[in-house]
Design goal:
Length: 356
């Protein structure tokens, strides 16, 4: 159930399509082949997601005997095929096995569940104990991970540009947060609301990593997907919240196109109106808020963003200014006219977004 009138047919991947498009045009078949297959997989899954929205996804409830306020995780092995979910290989409470990818997926689902429960009192991504399912080893050299509206899916990467997509816990948190957004504000996946959708996933993905590592805002690297890029790539991650536009600068991938302020906002018809690109602007605003407030970012800064996402006033077609205005309101309502409010107001001013 959403607060805004039904689910959008959203298919969300961690690697932006413009990155795979560039790789698909590379002359080296070791690079172009996996990228082209990944794009084909994504096109199929995007169509499947639309059909699921029309037909309706099957209702999923916690199984009998499930403990309240505890995760219920199931990991499947897709066996390098495209059929989901695959073969069940680990379920809640089972000991780790020999497959490190399975173990990382299981741990990442748990880290996401824990952050939302402990920091915000949210019981799983729907707030009602939704089971967390994930499939690993999807496709052949699949260069992506995604939330398809029902479950998580991870590729193994091509080991040329991308490594195993279960390596960065923030990637797992990012994709599952698309599920939280789906069940709350249900932001339209195009233009500025789509960029907000992506940014919220980056924000909470980063907070999940920081919470798991016990890092303060000052200690965090504020990178999304650190550890995902193969050694041959000149770069540190997919995105940087601290310094958008600096995550990579590579002869194959090109240069990170994210802007940090509205002055460099990218107007494009690709990538659903630049949802993975312009998300750098609200990402940077959150970084500025979190570091100005200090301490653990999932506490006050994260609480303001969570209140905004789940408060019921954020519309599906919200622009940056709408979201920014609601964060100011959320900061004032929860913390009064103190440092938190000033940090939020100043951050949006620094990135060039007006609050109404």
């Amino acid at each position: 159930m959403t607060t805004n009138g039904g689910f959008q047919p959203v298919f969300c991947t961690i690697v932006p399509p413009h990155v795979l498009d560039r790789l698909a045009r590379n002359e080296d078949p070791a690079l172009s082949g996996p990228a082209r297959r990944s794009l084909e997989h994504d096109a199929y899954q995007r169509t499947h997601r639309r059909l699921t929205t029309v037909i309706g996804a099957p209702a999923v409830a916690a199984p009998a005997g499930a403990v309240a306020d505890q995760p219920h995780r199931t990991i499947y092995d897709a066996g390098h095929q495209q059929d989901l979910p695959g073969t069940k290989v680990r379920e809640e409470g089972a000991e780790p096995g020999a497959d490190a990818t399975v173990n990382r997926a299981y741990t990442g689902l748990g880290a996401t569940f824990e952050l939302y429960l402990k920091a915000y009192g949210r019981n799983s991504i729907d707030g009602e104990g939704l089971p967390l399912d994930a499939s690993v080893h999807f496709g052949t050299d699949y260069d992506n991970a995604f939330w398809n509206g029902e479950q998580m899916v991870f590729g193994d990467g091509d080991n040329e540009i991308f490594l195993d997509f279960t390596i960065p816990v923030d990637v797992i948190g990012h994709e599952l947060t698309h599920g939280v957004t789906q069940h709350t504000a249900n932001l339209t996946y195009f233009g500025q609301p789509g960029a907000l959708n992506e940014s919220l996933s980056d924000v909470f993905g980063s907070l999940i990593k920081q919470y798991a590592l016990g890092q303060s805002a000052a200690e965090a690297d504020w990178l999304i997907g650190a550890g995902l890029l193969a050694p041959r790539v000149t770069g540190t991650a997919l995105r940087s919240m601290k310094a958008p536009g600096t995550a990579y600068d590579d002869d194959v991938l090109g240069k990170d196109p994210q802007p940090a302020t509205m002055e460099d906002y990218v107007h494009t018809g690709r990538d659903n109106g630049g949802v993975h690109i312009n998300s750098g602007i609200p990402n940077h605003a959150f970084y500025l808020v979190a570091t100005a407030i200090g301490g653990n970012a999932w506490e006050r800064a994260g609480q303001i963003w969570y209140d905004t996402l789940t408060g019921g006033e954020l519309k599906q077609d919200a622009a940056f200014a709408d979201f920014a205005t609601l964060t100011v309101k959320a900061a004032r309502e929860r913390y009064g006219a103190g440092d938190e409010l000033q940090a939020v107001q100043k951050a949006w001013e620094q990135v060039g977004v007006r609050t109404l």
